[in-house]
Write a structure and sequence with these properties.
The chain is α/β, with parallel strands linked by helices. It has a single domain, classed as Metal-dependent hydrolases (TIM Barrel, Alpha-Beta Barrel), CATH 3.20.20.140. Helix content is 41%, strand content 15%. The chain has an eight-stranded parallel beta sheet with strand order 1-2-3-4-5-6-7-8, sandwiched between helices. The longest helix is centred in the middle third of the chain and has 17 residues. The protein is globular. The two termini are 20 Å apart. The structure holds zinc ion. The site of zinc ion has 5 residues, from loops.
Length: 254
């Protein structure tokens, strides 16, 4: 048994329809106390809400993901307001991504800034997606004097950037990426940060860990991911689980 929270899992999507009930049952039986399910686009918010209503373990966040910028409309940003009910734990997943070029960067920035403002109005934390954009995201958070914290999920920045996020009240999310022996930079960041600013995640079905290479990732893999990361940190898996769970509870007010 490990006291875990998967702070980032796309368990709402259709490819989990056949396995969701079994996965949620196995995760709960193993000690997982919550799975945070972030939204990616307005078209999926109804399903996300319905799926989270079916399982007490699943906690929803709503947001417009930067990788689907072409699908997002200004009306969707406005509609976000009406999806924020008291059990919604964050605004996300939102952010900036220039991994494949930055043609639509100005539009990404517009959508991101508007959603940060929405979260600020509702006193909600953020679930952030950042690829090659950590400094630009920090700039927006500082400009808006955003003080409700959150998580930078699947962290891929530098140690210095992680520390800047920590200073603004943001934890850093680690998962399958850090299970690979070649992830030396990521592992050294994990070893350096305080666990008060570290949370665990799978990003399932994406980012398969080293022991499930080539397969779809699942939230159940978080148990073994935790064992591997605890080994990296030379600590007991139960201690890593308990500490990062406390961090997630503080960040998301659980
Ligand atoms: Zn995601």
């Amino acid at each position: 048994m490990l006291d875990l929270i998967d702070t980032h899992c796309h368990l709402d999507i259709a490819e989990f329809d056949a396995t969701r009930a079994d996965l949620v049952g196995r995760c709960a039986a193993g000690g997982m106390r919550a799975i945070l399910v972030p939204g990616v686009g307005e078209a999926g918010w109804t399903r996300l809400r319905q799926v989270c209503d079916q399982y007490a373990l699943l906690l929803p966040a709503f947001g417009l993901h930067p990788c689907y910028t072409a699908e997002h409309r200004d009306e969707h940003v406005a509609a976000l307001e009406s999806w924020i009910t008291p059990d919604v734990i964050a605004v996300g997943e939102i952010g900036l991504d220039t991994f494949h070029g930055d043609q639509d960067f100005e539009r990404q920035l517009e959508l991101f800034s508007a959603q940060v403002a929405t979260a600020r109005n509702h006193h909600l934390p953020l679930i952030l997606h950042a690829r090659k954009t950590h400094d630009q995201i920090l700039k927006v958070l500082r400009q808006q004097k955003f003080s409700y914290g959150g998580v930078v999920h699947a962290f891929s920045g530098s140690l210095q950037q992680a520390q800047h996020f920590n200073e603004l009240g943001f934890a850093v999310g680690f998962g399958g990426g850090a299970t690979y022996d070649r992830a030396q930079k990521l592992r050294s960041i994990l070893k350096t940060l305080s666990l008060d600013y570290v949370v665990l995640e799978t990003d399932a079905p994406d980012i398969p860990p080293s022991f499930a290479r080539g397969e779809d990732n699942t939230p159940f893999n978080l148990f073994r991911i935790t064992e591997i990361l605890a080994d990296v940190l030379q600590m007991a898996p139960a201690d890593l689980a308990a500490h990062t769970t406390r961090t997630a509870q503080r960040i998301f007010g659980l």
